[in-house]
Amino acid sequence: MEFLLWMALAGPAWSTVGAILLPRRYRTRRADPRLAGVAGGIWGAVLGPVGLVLLYRSTPRLLRGLHVVIPGILLLAELLALFALMNPSSTCVTNGPYLANQVQNGLTVGLVYATMAAGLTLIYSVQRIISFSHGQFVMFGGVTAFLILQQVDLNPIAVIPIVAIGTLLLGMLVAATLLRPIQSGRAERPDEFAILMTFGLGVFMTYALVGVLGSPVGVRAPRYTDRPIFGLDASVIEIGAIRLRMDVLIAGGVGLLVFLGLVWLLYRTWLGRSFRAVSMDRQAAAAVGIDSGRAFVLAFGLGCMLAGIAGAALVPAFNFQVPDMAAQTAIRSYVIVVLGGLGSVPGALVGALFLGVTEALTAACYPDPTKGATYQVASGLLVFLAVLLLRPQGFFGRREG
Amino acid sequence: MRTSPDVGFRVSGESTGLPRGLAIGVMTVLLVAACGGGASPTASTTSAAVTPAATSIATATPAGEIVIGGVGPLSQPGDVAIGTEMKWAMEQAIADLNAKGGVLGRQLRLAFNDTQNQPDVCAAIAQKLVDENVAAVVGEAHSGCGLAQIPAYSKAGMPVVFSETYNDKITAGDPADPNLPANPPTIFRIAPTSTYYSSFIADWLINGLKAKNLIQFVDNSDYGLGEKAAMQAALGGTSIQLVQIAIDTGQPDYSAIVARAKAENPDADAVFFDSASIADGWALQQNAIDAGLVDTAACIGGPAATDFAGYWRAVPGGAGCAFQQVGLTSSQFNELAKSLDERTNLALGHGARNYAFEAYDSVLLVADAIARAGSTDHQGIVTALEATSMVGAQGQYTFTYNSTNPVPAGKPAWLWHQWPEPPIQLLEYTKKGQTLAEATTIWPASRQTVSGQAWVQVPR
Lengths: 401, 460
Fold this sequence. Notes:
The structure holds 2 protein chains of 2 kinds.
Chain A: H1 2-28, H2 36-58, H3 64-86, H4 91-94, H5 96-127, H6 134-151, H7 156-177, H8 180-184, H9 190-213, E1 218-219, E2 236-239, E3 242-245, H10 246-268, H11 270-280, H12 282-287, H13 292-314, E4 320-321, H14 324-340, H15 345-365, H16 376-390, E5 397-399
Antiparallel strand pairs in A: 1-4, 2-3
Helix pairs in contact in A: 1-2, 2-3, 5-10, 5-13, 5-14, 5-15, 6-7, 6-9, 6-13, 6-14, 7-13, 10-11, 10-13, 11-13, 14-15, 14-16, 15-16
Chain B: E1 3-5, H1 22-34, E2 66-72, H2 80-99, E3 108-114, H3 119-132, E4 136-139, H4 143-156, E5 160-162, H5 169-172, E6 187-189, H6 194-209, E7 213-219, H7 222-235, E8 241-247, H8 255-264, E9 270-274, H9 278-291, E10 298-301, H10 308-314, E11 321-326, H11 335-348, H12 354-373, H13 378-386, E12 390-392, E13 395-397, E14 424-428, E15 440-443
């Protein structure tokens, strides 16, 4: 107990020492220092000075598995053990099924978060620009679905294709007009141009949607489970202590399908290959007959379509309000794509699941039960900051020398 | 530093890196969100040119109009649904009064301002109304916003009738805050106070439901903090165990915290979803139903459930949940209330809600005071308001404790300039899809639909 407490107090200090000193030693020895910072930080946190001495002596033979992954798992185990020892009566420690249910809940919500981030990932993958109107396209999809379902008695799933087509066309229109200077090379600073233009577009869309709705409102479409699904008339399925919410599962299922569709598109279709070719080398792609302008417009349109699908899939299952929905989804999407590694499709999925579980476990396990929900969102942003500091390229990114 | 993709399905082989400006951009979005940048455009204010005057006599326009300032949220983060309906009801009151010849032979005009529930905006709007020297101010739906307005009104001696702000401090003041004088002399309120509201729920829990363990969800707002303190005070000294859980509003999902509440409080026999935000209160409630938190416990929501169509859309599992009806039920309406209710139905597609009645009556109260004062002198209006004895849509109004009859020692300070007994009752939807008129009254005991039935348990 005392040892673990000591480690908890001294761990961050030794971690800092390791993260600073070890790369210096590698540079002094003219060795590759890229893994040294992370390894030094993790070994310092897990084994303190002992770990640092071992690493110091093993210079320059760092292995990702032995020196980063295994001690990383050890660090996680150490932190969990520490939590259990310091909070022996916590429900997360004493009630396994409860913990499993919370993890399940976090994973399901994470799948839904992944849906939100998919479009952003695609746009960055192909075009190397960050769309700051992404949240507004999610909101546009959600509001469109909401308005259609208010007028027509349809299954919420049936509305998703309609929204998909609408957002695809709108996205292509935006890319062909507002973002054309990037593609044509007329934008002197394309990164900044993209940020400013998409940010401005987002503000315009927010105000336009508020104008259409008359005033900001809660957007709550009929739930998926308002009508029987394959003869099943239940909104919750209980498996032991696990309670599966059908609405969230369906929204998450849509998210999973979107991801699988995205992977299929990128790696199994000519269109996807052309996207990848353009993103690798625009001139070379043009030399083999790929129209990079069309690829640019289509990729942005598809990214917006994924955002629209996310919005339409989410409003029957979650609490959203216009215009806050745009900021909520945008912030989480940015966190997810940076966590996973910019432009990485599997990274976005893993980042989303990680964020969902982190938020759920904060609400579920934070020692003061009256404040767990208050810190739920902050925990995700803390993890985001920690990853930016320790591994700026995200889980699935690779640092380039 | 540049980064490049390397794994799995990443698309490009070229250097990717964190794009320039990404960090700045993300921070910008965070800042905009934090500052309420997602809010709607500032709603139009109808406060046209009202010439400020140097005297305390409120200025009339050249046409001789008397200008009454209205305040309420028409943009997020304020509750726009409430603010919109309040504004509409105030306009009805002004139209009704003008149709009868106005007040003192002059027409009335409403200068409504969108306070957005942002404290800096609320304070600025209050100062604007003071500078425009309106005759009096009515309205407001958010306690924090009301509290932010009080310093400007108190300094200027502006008569105010707050119609939908519950925090005790509105009329009690706050000894710890130099900007909130104890018993502010020009501030009146016709909404229930947090303590009054919580005491009513506490009375039901103790004497009706005979509960032993209560979970109360509150939001992190001035309203929520007021409710939290009021419930602690109301249940202090009783045997009821109280667990209070704070939430941040605006989240898409609250399932993790309600699952925790269930696991850690298996003996809870009542759960109170007490959020100022209608959408969040309903999301919380449905998440709790899905998590099984109220399978056997009584569930209590907020007064917004009187909008039964919206309630059933957001809380389809909400049969068996009680909710407060602040104001009267349709069977208790007088002619004035019936008239407003019918007009609201025609114009807005639903019956008038409590905040509409309150907003309507707040205008009538001020007009009545101006008429009795014989002028728009602020002090005269305050004195007349203190002597109010008027029947509005919600019934007979008086402000029992005032400058000639101070709040006695031992009685709560919030009784100052407070309508002492705003109507409040607890109803329950016992079947999915019920309308407000079909809801069962379960408290107070004197109004129960079925005598002795303080809650109808619906199997889940």
